[in-house]
Amino acid sequence: MKEYKCGICNKSYDKIEDRIACESKCYKDYKKAEEAKKKAELEEARKARKEELDLACKKYLELRNAYMKDYGHYTYSYSYGDDNESNSWEAFWRNW
Ligand SMILES: [Zn+2]
Fold it and tell me: Reduced to 3 states, what is the DSSP secondary structure of residue 75?
C-alpha cells in the first residue's frame, strides 16, 4: 500500500487527502511558530535598545550630578530637536 507522508511533520497516511489535510494544518502551525519567533526577535531588539538608552541616561545623570556637585548649576546648551514644548529638553526630563 502506498504511503503518503506529511512534508512537515512526517506522519504517514494511507490516503493522499489525509496527507493534504495534515500538511495544511501543519503549515498553519508552522506559520504561527514563524510569526511568534519573529515577534520574539523584535521584542528582544526593543529590549536591547531600551537597555542602551537607559544606560545612556544613567551615564548622563552621573555626569550631570558630578558637574552640579562641583559647579552648582547645569544648563543644557543645545536645543533638543525643534524648540516646541513637547520636544524640549526640559519637558523630556519632566516626563522621565
Ligand atoms: Zn503534518
Answer: coil
- Can you tell me whether residue 33 is helix, strand or coil? helix
How many whole angstroms from 37 Cα to the centroid of ligand 1? Answer: 20
Place of cell 504517514: 12
Reported residue count of the chain is 96
SS3 68: helix
Q: How far is it, in rounded angstroms, from Cα 54 to Cα 48?
A: 10
pLDDT at res. 22: 98
Q: Tens digits of per-residue pLDDT, 21-64?
A: 999 999 999 999 999 999 999 999 999 999 999 999 999 999 99
pTM above 0.70, yes or no: no
If one compares 84 and 21, the residue with the highest pLDDT of the two is 21
Ligand 1 centroid to residue 28 C-alpha, Å: 10
Contact 48, 41 (CB under 8 A): no
What separation in angstroms does the CA of 43 have from each of 17, 48, 50, 79? 39, 9, 10, 31
